[in-house]
Amino acid sequence: MKKIGTAGNKGPGIRSDCFVTLEITEKGGLEISIESKVGVLFGDSINTLANDILTHFGIENAKLSIEDRGALDFVLAARIEAATMECVDTDKEYLLDVIPENQYHTAKDRYRRSRLYLPGNSPKLMLNAGIHQPDGIILDLEDSVAPDKKDEARLLVRNALCQVDFYGAERMVRINQLPMGLGDLEFVVPHNVNLILLPKCESADQVQRVDTRIQEISKQHKVKQPVYLMPIIESALGVVKAYEIASASENVVALAIGLEDYTADLGAPRTHEGQETFYARSTLVNAARAAGIQPIDSVFSDVSDMEALRAVVLESKSLGFDGMGCIHPRQIKVVHEAFAPSEDEIDKAKRIVNAFDQATSQGLGVVSLGSKMIDPPVVKRAQRTIDLAIRSGLLSENWKEESKE
Amino acid sequence: MTTKFVKNAVGRMIPTEINGKPVIPFKGPHGHKTIGRKYGPPIRNCGDYPDDGDKRQPDLKAALVEAGLKDGMTISTHHHFRNGDLIANQIFQVASEMGVKDLVWFPSASFPCHEPLIEYLEDGTIHHIEGSMNGPLGRFASQGKMKGTGVLRSHGGRYQAVQDGEVVVDIAVIAAPTADPFGNANGLSGPSSCGLLGFALADSQYAHKVIVVTDNLVPFPCIPWQIQGNNVDYVIEMEQIGIPEKIVSGTTRITKSPDRLYIAELTAKFCDAAGIIRDGFSFQAGAGGTALAIGNYFGEIMREKGIKARFARGGSNQYLVELLDEGLVEHILDGQTFDLEGVRSMRENPHHVDTSPFTSYNYHGKGNFASLLDVVILGATEVDINFNGNVVTHSDGLLLHGMGGWQNCLFGKTVILPIPLFRDRIPVIRDEVTTICGPGELIDVIVSERGIAINPLREDLIAATKDSGLPIKTIHELKEEAERICGKPQLPQFEDNIIAAIKWVDGTVIDVVKQVKES
Question: Which residues of B touch A165 (CB under 8 A)?
């Protein structure tokens, strides 16, 4: 164990974060120094929190310095705990309450049109992520976190899951590749995560190892709600194994593709046209559909070009994908608009649903529209189109009543 | 001596005297009426001025000496050059070298480039500042280090104070991008071009002595004459009067922050839902990144509906000029030009007109433009649950900003403040603002990233938007949401010493700022 532990970020561009340095001493009690841009308004509260955390971990003599740039309590707590972990050997955790706004679970087949990536060690980007109304947010522990920051990011992500209001978005965490990813699970599964993204997935076995570990942790911590899985295929081998991965567990609800790594693996440059990835995307859609789960597309990396993004999403939709990753909040709206059903699709869906209602009310087992017979999956699909149209603001919730008027 | 205090109409305790002058406490937005006659400057005789119209002096010092610079005088300057001003600092350097003491600086605004003036506040050259105190100067004042008490006024309030004789300007120094030896001047061309010179208008008419300083002297006549040479005593030619890239930006940019864009979009949607954006409407466009984005969204809505705005009041910049050029805005009434595209448009397009605090803001005008606006977009450091607004101090008590035309614009028909619910960790909606700069009855709507609050006084807006699907909440709900996220801040501690007075547009005092307690 070290004598001095540090955690957090500092520097000119840093906001909503802090940098803490903890030095365990022999005597002199707790000496806490706070240098904060919000010190006049929150100095006492930061001091109380810091005292509480150190006491919680049984530290009686230490110097703690906090260089604060407006960090909220969940950030301060994660940073102080991370610095403590470097100095003290303990099984204890400093846990914050789950805010009432975050006490929701998500459904297996909910919409996952957009998922917003948030670097797991950057609190600033987490705070307002939910206001942009993505279907899901991803707290990323993998590529966006530097290797020497992995431990502190786990604590920050854990605290964010409990304390940051994401306004109804599905709370997702992208864990590291195995085996490190298995260790990540202990920090998130007991603390309010809805879905785990498993990066660079290449086999059903990897999915099952993660799923098994989740079950163990859930049992141990009495977590009742399911934790879903979204494996990400990012290699040639992954594409070949797509169906076995998609059907590896009943908790797998979606299958995503990551095209940057995939094209690197192929040795083909990634182009706007995307011919080099057509096979992989088609294969993935087919595998996901065969397994009865959602196929989800990669991300689009030019955050300033909304028109190019729109074109890519429209193509993605035409290939059969249900959603796409977002690396910037401004992409969410474009993704939602592009995945929204067209006017023709909505009209057709309305006719099918009306025909179904009519058949049901007349006690008919067979639904027909004009001269065509309508199969149950077609009705289900139409109902989904209607739901999506309502969610996208293209159709009123009371469309049935309104069309009668 | 013990200072006496009285409670004003917004419940703030106001001293009866500031800088040895009696104070009238704020009585409500239109509560105070001044009667009598306007202040008049001394009569001049043209025979005392050169027949050939050449009023040049060799340098600034010579002109200041000619103008009779002496202890206790009030010296005015203007902020057309924003953070690129090279003149104000030189004036007080000359005064300090001459051993002149206890001057009052009366700028239309100050900027961080004026930090060197702290030296002259410390050595007694400047007694106090009557004008905005931005950044370093505000911090200096907040620490109780200024000899006199600062007085902050709006742009319109500055005009009112001059017309009331509340401030008598002894010497006005007007930095002019183009001028002739007679003193005619404009801001439209030259290396330091800034668009217009409206903030110097009152000073040119009322100051006892007027000095024009330029780095682009042209032979008579300098056209157009935004400042009339007939009001000018002396003209000085200098190598350089401003730093161009700090005067106007080559590129004003719409914010890239997704959170601010979201607030901007929500603001535009609100205006649309409230029925404000209709053919022939008018709006005030700010220069901040969020305000720019709102103008852009207005443009999108007008394009979609096939309608036009009759006029927009600037702060002009490339985005507003684009709307003018596209025909979506018929006129720009420009109070301040923020980029080179704005300057070009004003120079070339007759529908892009320069304005001044006289046309737009003056309390003693027979009406003014600001109150004609359908919608005004403004900022604030804090707002409280009674919709009172603060633009000068931060929640930690430090005086860091001026008011600009903020108070004057509150008289627009609908006033909207698009603001984030918290900055860093600091909630923006408070139980009580640290400093009241504008009364809540004039602030109609707060648009934040977590919802929109409408002033209960605006029942029309509440009714118009209730089925809009927009996230309308009460201001209490927004405040509570911010405090749930940030925690409830403790209150800053102050000394008893008053460091600045905040004037309302009519010359009454709406609030005072106290010295912060050093921890």
Answer: 485
Rounded to whole angstroms, how far apart are CA atoms A270 and B121? Answer: 62
Q: How far apart (Å, rounded) are the C-alpha atoms in residues A368 and B14?
A: 80
Q: Please name which of B321, B264, B265 lies closest in space to residue B289, comparing C-alpha atoms.
A: B264
Interface size between A and B, measured as CB pairs under 8 A = 63
Q: What one-letter code names the amino acid at A192?
A: N
Cα separation, B315 vs B306, whole angstroms: 25
Q: List, in order of start, the domains of chain A with CATH numbers.
A: 4-87 (3.30.230.10), 100-339 (3.20.20.60), 343-404 (no CATH)
Q: Which domain holds residue B242?
A: 58-130+167-247
Q: Do B218 and B286 fall within a single domain?
A: no
**C-alpha of A248 from chain center:** 20
Q: Is A310 on the interface with B (CB under 8 A)?
A: no
Whole-angstrom distance, CA of residue A134 vs CA of residue A113? 8
Give the model confidence (pLDDT) of B404-422 as tens digits: 999 999 999 999 999 999 9
Cα distance from A236 to chain B (closest Cα, Å)? Answer: 35
Whether chain B has a CB inside 8 Å of the CB on A33: the answer is no
How does pLDDT run across A72-99, given as a tens digit for each residue?
999 999 999 999 999 999 999 999 999 9
State the pLDDT confidence band at A66, using cuts at 50, 70 and 90.
very high
Q: Are residue B316 and residue B351 in the same domain, yes or no?
A: yes
Helix axes B289-305, B318-326, angle to 10 degrees: 10
- Residues 6 or more apart whose CB falls under 8 angstroms from that of B464 comprise B273, B274, B275
Would the CB atoms of A41 and B426 count as touching at under 8 Å?
A: yes
Predicted confidence (pLDDT) at residue A176 exceeds the cutoff of 80? yes
**What is the total count of domains within chain B?**
2
Helix, strand or coil for residue B161? Answer: helix
How far is A180 from chain B, CA to nearest CA, in Å?
32
- The CATH number of residue B66's host domain is 3.40.1080.10
- CB-based contact B486 A72, cutoff 8 Å: yes
* Chain A, window 345-404: residues with a beta carbon less than 8 angstroms from a chain B beta carbon: 393
Question: In B37-104, which residue ranges form alpha helices assigned H by DSSP?
Answer: 60-66, 88-97
Query: B94, B91, B137: which is closest to B113 by C-alpha?
Result: B137
Determine, yes or no, domain membership for B512: no
Distance from CA of B397 to the nearest CA of A (A): 9
d(CA A116, CA A139): 9
**Residue of B424, B431, B434 for testing the chain A interface, max A β-carbons within 10 Å:** B424
Nearest CA of chain A to the CA of B492: how many Å? Answer: 6
Flag if A42 and B258 touch (Cβ within 8 Å): no
Q: Which of B258, B259, B424 has the CB atom closest to A15's CB atom?
A: B424
Distance between CA atoms of B197 and B227, rounded to whole angstroms? 7
Same domain, B198 and B266: no
Chain B residue with minimal CA distance to A37? B424
* Cα A51 off chain centre by: 33
Return d(Cα A293, Cα A310) in angstroms, integer. 24
Cα separation, A384 vs A390, whole angstroms: 10
CA distances from B426 to A132, A156, A291, B381 (A): 21, 21, 49, 10
Asked if the Cβ–Cβ distance from B519 to A43 is below 8 Å, we say: yes
Residue A405 confidence class, pLDDT cut points 50, 70, 90: low
The model carries a pTM of 0.93
d(CA B412, CA B372): 6
B509 to chain A, closest Cα gap in Å? 27
Segment A328-333 shows an average pLDDT of 95
User: For chain B, which residues lie within 8 Å of any Cβ of chain A, measuring from their own Cβ?
Assistant: 258-259, 261-262, 395-397, 423-426, 449-450, 469, 484-487, 489-490, 492, 516, 519
Backbone φ, ψ for residue B119 (5° rounding): -55, -40
